[in-house]
Amino acid sequence: MYRIFVTRSLPGNALDKIKDRCNVTVYPLDRTITKDELMTYLKEADAVISMLSDPIDKEVIEAGKNLKVIANYAVGYNNIDIEAATKSGIAVVNTPDVLTEASADLAWALLLAVSRRVVEGDTMTRAGKFRGWAPELLLGVPVYGQTLGIIGAGRIGQAVARRAKGFGMRVLYHNRKRLPEAIENDLGMSYAALDDLLAESDFVSLHCPLTPETKHLIGPRELGLMKQTAVLINTARGPVVDEEALLQALRKKTIFGAGLDVYEKEPLLTPGLADLPNVVLTPHIGSADTRTRLAMVDMVLNDIIAVLNNERPQNLVNPEVWGRR
Ligand code: DGY
To answer: Helix-strand-coil percent breakdown of the chain, rounded to 5?
Structure first.
């Protein structure tokens, strides 16, 4: 029987369905597994379902002597040393597509919450401080008809753009590679150089993967290019934004606000960030709706079973590994 190790309890009961074929162990604690614990559990495992919060580095990979597949329960896989996995002949799979719409919804939830000061309004109302309608109460920035700048126009970035149609927005995008004209036309998006996008957008939403090139893509210079009325949304990866620089921009009000689902030193926040009223903070819940999280379980299990049956998995991140089989 193959051994599957899961680093955190998953929603639904899909794991039960494979228990006749596989020996499944789920990390019993409701917290992120430590590196030492992970290395111990991996000694025996043929497959692991890892979370985006589990750093799977070279040392961890080498501890998995029998490991054939690492299934990351996320679309992003910057937590995994892909080169080391590939060198060890281990397939890495992830969960693209199924979480696209949920992640785009959350980016929009933050965009609307920041621009219309929803959280400040909620806090004020709960505290009994709503003393009647007033013309200047919690004035936000307009959304409808404004310009949205999308950085990283992959699946999620495009899904965010699609929603902007309903808000009558002009949409700019910046991407490593320009998209085919047909997609640009379909989504009503225009390509822009990064600096132009930052200067012209009322909302800047980040959807690029974290790579050495995108680390601190948004720093003091870039924040300085943004309008004083602009809002920054980050549902991609924390280190894409220089969080200290963002804190200063929010403090000095050189931008209107920010909506963050991800953090540079997740789960820690830059001190001071949580005290600011012009930022809305969520705990990395981009894909967290029930339908999506259940579909992600099915997806990682299907790909694990495929690899263990020596069949090519659907969402192989390191295709080079397959050619060598
Ligand atoms: C992912 O899957 O990479 C997302 O960050 C989840 O929110």
So the answer is: 40, 15, 45
- Please state, in angstroms and rounded to a whole number, the distance separating the CA atoms of residues 161 and 235: 14
Question: Phi, psi at residue 147, to the nearest 5°?
Answer: -105, 130
Measure the CA–CA gap between 193 and 209, rounded to whole angstroms: 18
CA distances from 205 to 112, 224, 234 (A): 12, 16, 6
- Domain range summary for the chain, segments of one domain joined by +: 2-97+289-324, 100-281
Nearest alpha-carbon partner for 230 in 239, 238, 242, 218: 218
Average pLDDT of the chain is: 97
- As assigned by CATH, the class of the 100-281 domain is alpha beta
With beta carbons less than 8 A apart as the criterion, state whether 158 and 183 touch: yes
Q: Is 49 helix (H, G, I), strand (E, B) or coil?
A: strand
Confidence of residue 17 (pLDDT cuts 50, 70, 90): confident
Residue with CA closest to ligand 1 atom 2: 74
> Relative to the CA of 102, which ligand 1 atom is closest?
7
Judge whether 2-97+289-324 and 100-281 match in fold: yes
Say if ligand 1 is within 6 A of residue 50 CB. no
18: amino acid identity, one letter: I
99 lines ligand 1 (CB under 6 A): yes
